[in-house]
Amino acid sequence: DVKVTQSSRYLVKRTGEKVFLECVQDMDHENMFWYRQDPGLGLRLIYFSYDVKMKEKGDIPEGYSVSREKKERFSLILESASTNQTSMYLCASSLLVRVSPLHFGNGTRLTVT
Amino acid sequence: GQQLNQSPQSMFIQEGEDVSMNCTSSSIFNTWLWYKQDPGEGPVLLIALYKAGELTSNGRLTAQFGITRKDSFLNISASIPSDVGIYFCAGQGPNYGGSQGNLIFGKGTKLSVKP
Q1: Which residues of chain B make contact with A42, given a CB cutoff of 8 A?
Q2: Interface test with A, best of B4, B56, B100 (most A CBs within 10 A)
Q3: Nearest 5°: CA angle at B104, between B100 and B105?
Q4: DSSP string, A19-55
Q5: Gyration radius (Cα) of chain B, Å
Q6: Is there a contact between A105 and A33 (Cβ–Cβ < 8 Å)?
Q7: What share of chain A has pLDDT > 70, as a percent?
Q8: Measured between alpha carbons, how far is B79 from B76 in angstroms, rounded to an integer?
């Protein structure tokens, strides 16, 4: 079974802090994704990557950056956390084939105070 | 851009009832996926559909890829308490460029137990 592991289930950070959310997958998947999930808004794509050192902006990249130095690891960075970034963050991975479904981690619930 | 409408937004179930939910798109999809999310967990893939007209079952769950390629439905038969959660549809359009950046999610259907 594919395992996508997010390093923290819950995080509380202060406004202005730099925040790192880490995600690791163990199935040699090429694609990795970061989503945020908010009530009433569903899942929104922040960034994705289809190869090491490659990244593409999703629908809501503002205020975020990402890093993919190794195939199995995809990090989401909040350069200066703000209260409107309080959310559930979900990492996902998939094979680089035409119709490969996403496999999600368990999420990180981030609160910015 | 492409829009996905999922309905209903929420529903209450009584044990033993059948449940139905659907998603419609403003444009054609090549793939439909159905996920379930339990509280505090990430979404888990239930069923994947790859061909128009395809009907696929996974235990008590049945999903169909609409013949127009613009809709899909999910049925749950004889619901049980552990069926509660949020169900998401997701679709992938024909402009797939190898990176799956165009996977679009519905806003979810929240299933709760009838009080």
Answers
A1: 88, 105-108
A2: B100
A3: 130
A4: EEEEEEESS--SEEEEEEEETTTEEEEEEEESSTT--
A5: 14
A6: no
A7: 95
A8: 6
The alpha-carbon gap from A60 to the nearest alpha carbon of chain B, in Å, equals 12
Contact criterion met (CB < 8 Å) for A104 and B105: no
Instruction: Encode pLDDT of A58-106 as tens digits.
Output: 889 999 999 999 999 999 999 999 999 999 999 999 887 656 788 999 9
**Under 8 Å CB-to-CB from A107, ≥6 apart: which residues?**
A6, A9, A37, A88, A89, A90, B40, B41, B42
Give the pLDDT means over successive 10-residue stretches in chain B (115 positions): 84 93 91 93 93 95 96 96 94 62 84 84
- Cα dihedral A37, A39, A42, A46, rounded to 10, equals -30
Mean pLDDT, to the nearest integer, of A31-42? 91
What is the model's pLDDT at position B99?
Answer: 45
Centre a 10 Å sphere on the Cβ of residue B60 and count the other Cβ atoms it contains. 14
Shortest alpha-carbon distance between residue A53 and chain B (Å) = 14
Residue B46: both structure tokens together: 């239930």
Instruction: Tell me whether residues A99 and B50 touch, CB distance under 8 A.
Output: yes
